Amino acid sequence: MRASVHRLGMAHPGDLSQLAALFDAGTLDPRHVCAVIGKTEGNGGVNDFTRGYFTLAFSALLAERSGRPRAEILDSVPCVLSGGTEGVLSPHYLVFAREAVEVAPVTGQKRLAIGVAFSPAMPPEQVGCRAHVDLVVAAVQQAMADAGIDDPADVHFVQVKAPCVTAARAQEAAARGAAVLTAESGRSMAYARVAGAFGVALALGDAPAARLTEDAMFRDYDLQSDRASISSGVEVACNEVILLGNSAGWSGDLAIAHRPMADALDIGGVSAVLGDLGLAAAPQLSAADAARIHGVLVKCEPDRRGALRGNRHTMLDDTDINAQRHIRGAVGGLVAGIIGDGRIFVSGGAEHQGPDGGGLIAVIARV
Amino acid sequence: MRASVHRLGMAHPGDLSQLAALFDAGTLDPRHVCAVIGKTEGNGGVNDFTRGYFTLAFSALLAERSGRPRAEILDSVPCVLSGGTEGVLSPHYLVFAREAVEVAPVTGQKRLAIGVAFSPAMPPEQVGCRAHVDLVVAAVQQAMADAGIDDPADVHFVQVKAPCVTAARAQEAAARGAAVLTAESGRSMAYARVAGAFGVALALGDAPAARLTEDAMFRDYDLQSDRASISSGVEVACNEVILLGNSAGWSGDLAIAHRPMADALDIGGVSAVLGDLGLAAAPQLSAADAARIHGVLVKCEPDRRGALRGNRHTMLDDTDINAQRHIRGAVGGLVAGIIGDGRIFVSGGAEHQGPDGGGLIAVIARV
Amino acid sequence: MRASVHRLGMAHPGDLSQLAALFDAGTLDPRHVCAVIGKTEGNGGVNDFTRGYFTLAFSALLAERSGRPRAEILDSVPCVLSGGTEGVLSPHYLVFAREAVEVAPVTGQKRLAIGVAFSPAMPPEQVGCRAHVDLVVAAVQQAMADAGIDDPADVHFVQVKAPCVTAARAQEAAARGAAVLTAESGRSMAYARVAGAFGVALALGDAPAARLTEDAMFRDYDLQSDRASISSGVEVACNEVILLGNSAGWSGDLAIAHRPMADALDIGGVSAVLGDLGLAAAPQLSAADAARIHGVLVKCEPDRRGALRGNRHTMLDDTDINAQRHIRGAVGGLVAGIIGDGRIFVSGGAEHQGPDGGGLIAVIARV
Amino acid sequence: MRASVHRLGMAHPGDLSQLAALFDAGTLDPRHVCAVIGKTEGNGGVNDFTRGYFTLAFSALLAERSGRPRAEILDSVPCVLSGGTEGVLSPHYLVFAREAVEVAPVTGQKRLAIGVAFSPAMPPEQVGCRAHVDLVVAAVQQAMADAGIDDPADVHFVQVKAPCVTAARAQEAAARGAAVLTAESGRSMAYARVAGAFGVALALGDAPAARLTEDAMFRDYDLQSDRASISSGVEVACNEVILLGNSAGWSGDLAIAHRPMADALDIGGVSAVLGDLGLAAAPQLSAADAARIHGVLVKCEPDRRGALRGNRHTMLDDTDINAQRHIRGAVGGLVAGIIGDGRIFVSGGAEHQGPDGGGLIAVIARV
């Protein structure tokens, strides 16, 4: 197998022209597309419709070009979008593709491997509960198998998109006599993210299984996976997984690395992940090195204690700008400055995903 | 003379308790305070009242402790505040003080020198015009004299706070038969910033005098001063100047350096200014080195061409978040990450202040 | 001819399920749909993508159900959306349809008539100029003909969607040696709205032709049409017109009326337009009377002098919330309260559309 | 006793010039000022510093003019501010004054009576609990006595400003072994508002005492007082009460009335309260009648079920604009339109204060 990653820009959230051009030019076969991770220019909140807009336009294009029905595409090609291109961040999306190739992998060289999985549909009363965690564990294991990765140490980034509870779903559950953890969408998304993080941590062995209990959620923040990137939204009914790692069974010229970020000022974490890929920022990557990068994926969080290395921050008490918008802009500015490129996927809501108050970074680059 | 700079935090824009504590402890004599530059947690726009709130609380405290009338303080101690602590930025203010000391300066060692000046009150019809530029030139020269600096090369940062036109002032001018450039406050502030930048450039010789004409404003962006930091507001009626440089005539242990920033991703400019002060970020300052820093002053701007190194940014078309808030958060995140501290003064509106699309950075540190 | 207007709700900007249901039930023939005016839940600014999202979903649905190509639908069925459902406003859209019927109109009874028109594509250098005004005049006349209305007095509401200048379009013009009035999108939209308003005023005789010159734009605010509702956006290349009036040549049970609103507090204008249709609010419409209403269309504006009946308002100086969002929420709250229904189309940017500082209201109801 | 109410405008949150002018002119004796309720132009959220700015400027002015220490004023003159002048709302404040007069009240005529009270300081662990309710009951009773009102039916509006929990207060409580209901400021404010509403309802007999239990909070929304207006903030340590009613023991020419508002579209409630005072809006008050009004006080709430009379609203899911800002703008637009004046005090957060999804209105007018 061989993986490819195309990083494409867009003029607006419905603009798939760069992808269409790749199809037109024969550079990319529509049937090889297996996943999308993208950054659209919405607010990243409940009322961010740039994600739905992109998904509609993407699925319509892929349906037209691949000859597959739109519904089938929505059920088999995970499309995970994070709204919010604060500051220097540039709207863009990563198209992940894979194809069987006859070239044998070079012995001893691990290359980027991609796996996807969809859990069964999940009833709303399971959102954020142990049953949710178990569904994610199974889906991550399935995505590992799909990627042909045996050793959890070879996994470097797991993107999960998990369902949340809505008012309508809560009522449907109540009608069946089932109770949801919360009917408030925003709160429910946080529960879903934590269940997803616990699921990834369990599947990959990032934290002791005995401690990953419901009681530990939102409490024991040392329990975390620095390879878990979880988002949640009303638009999915099951848990969608995109798993990225390196494997000796894959050929190609891409590899992935990841590192935790201790806090929003942890420039050291960024340097380290670049170093893992043989890239040196001094203090910025050279243009040649920057051109080797195919994708940068960051998860971060405004420190919930209201201070950063002893100095008060104001993100959590701001009624004008959502805290996640604040942190994405700041961490995006830092990472973009080191790499010299604004095409950084930065997503907030990093509970139990990397160190408390920090997060994680993964980079895909040509080796 | 000896200069000192105290960097103080605040719990809210009216909280001067850390300054009061310095007075209480005898660490700082209220009579030595000569200027304040601060970052309050407002939105940085026309309706940002955190600046007025701070100024009221500061002037009341200084009046009480120094025995000088509040009005006299407002007319002699420049208090320049920039609203907006986006992302990791921490609300804080720099208190500049100076005192005559008997210690002779060490030969060959230039140390931080501080000068202040107030232009005469300026009628609204002069805002943004040549007459405005001339007033700033004179005030900068006066501040240089106040700081005891002869050579413009020894000046590293000039903060100007310039008046703007308001609807009321425009009407007053019209009643006298005078016409203002614009009666729109926001637009008028931009005019005032450019006139201020041209004034600093002229006074310091940063651009050819013959080219610094009214026609060149908002047009020839290569005409700029990377030592000019201009803000404008309804709260002043004259041009207030705080000038910072190094001088052999001053003792103490502080020095200042500055560098241009080519764009919002110019991490190299940040490294360079730290290097000028003997500080090395690799990739972040050590805690010991960070503790040597007494103030970081940054000016920046969302690139008005809508792209950054070829990638589209969305700051200028965002109806939800003002463009200046975006850029402050991003550049603040970058600089804070390198230094390891969120107490960075970052101000937007950098027309002709540093390179087009970029800005400048100045750092005060113990040597 | 017979006109119908369906007022439909949506769960999100891509939700056309209520329209699909009308098609499914045979209540509405897709081939009869001639125009859409809708209110989506975006911010109403440059970066409001809810309009594009709705348009994509709408045109895809209509293409599928009518068998016409999507491109043809976009070029023949005007779809005018205003973003922003501030306060009590409810996301909804009006589907206008017309069909030839054999029933002869009742003598002496004028009923709702609908006409649409598209001007030729307009080069960017014409935006906001006299040539723009002339194109709108011709399009309005064409729409009157399309509606079968001879007497301008029978026209009650003209919705125009006009192109604006973008950076790309300005560069294209410059390459041809042509100059645009402004390359700034937001400013260009205002120019386009004023040209549209002047065009409608000329076509309908709402102001003296001799005074409707370029010089009068943004200046002589007594020149206005209280039947003109103009929006502008990057998404169109020509001027699209939806014209609504009453005609003896149309049958059906709907009629339309309109009134100016003197300012944002002009509850009298709202009462008057309801009275024109035989509806009395005392102080609110009865449920039965409210059910007779098929559409409410409002245009309004924050008073540019910064005060309302002598009391200062803060809409124009708010860096957190755009002024148009403020005024839509306030006027929407007033109109919705009188009618008892939040499905009100309220659009800002009312320069020369109704009295200065006010706007207009049109209501479609069963008679 | 005789009560007076001065409604004053402000150019910014620190502008007390109109009050100073009343003092200068001898129109108002500083020693008679007993309370202030005002609407400042902040965002109304946790980071709204316009309230603190106004309070600092007000207390400094009153201290200077009355000769009383600022601390004493803060502890005896309640100053309750609500941030947010969305839409047509105009920044203003009501200065309540009372003085002993020799004129005997006219028999049979009840006139505006004002009472104030401060509960003892309340520890954070009591916020939102039964103990909090009891403190409010006692303070309301004390304010009734202060106003000389015996019959709860004569009370028309009770403004309570209650403390909330902050992170620091929660830690202080924890250090004493006490537990707070929540350490999250926003959530704690809601608890405090509900405790305040229950306290007023108990004190005035607006709901059965047996049902006003902790379990009923946020649940049994039919338990409410349409005379309770509660706000909560970090700036107070005890419960401050301003009670307004009519009393035969007071002279003067002012009276107050109140009505519930069933929902945000309840124009009928507004008409009714005006009718109670002999004022008729048809559809708007005449200028002469509007001039009789000295204050309008409104409490409202975005319907937490996400719909208003069957139509979806978007206030609760908006990440860009806080829901309270939305509802204030809409209800403010409605009430201002009926009265013809933007000087309306509108405050959000109306849990158990008036009908669920609605709120209340009180009007003070000359009779």
Automatic annotation (TrEMBL), chains A, B, C, D:
The keyword Hydrolase applies. This is Cyclic amide hydrolase. Homotetramer. Keywords: Hydrolase, Magnesium, Metal-binding. Substrate binds at R51, S82, G83, R193, S231, S232, R328, S347, G348. Residues 111-248 are annotated as: RU B. Residues 1-102 are annotated as: RU A. Residues 254-367 are annotated as: RU C. The monomer structure is formed from three repeating units (RUs) that share the same structure as one another. The monomer and the active site possess nearly threefold rotational symmetry, to the extent that the active site possesses three potential Ser-Lys catalytic dyads, but one of the 3 active site surfaces varies in composition suggesting it is involved in confering substrate specificity. It comes from the Bacteria. It is an enzyme of class 3 (hydrolase). Belongs to the cyclic amide hydrolase (CyAH) family. Mg(2+) binds at E301, A350, Q353, G354, P355, G358. Its EC number is 3.5.2.-.
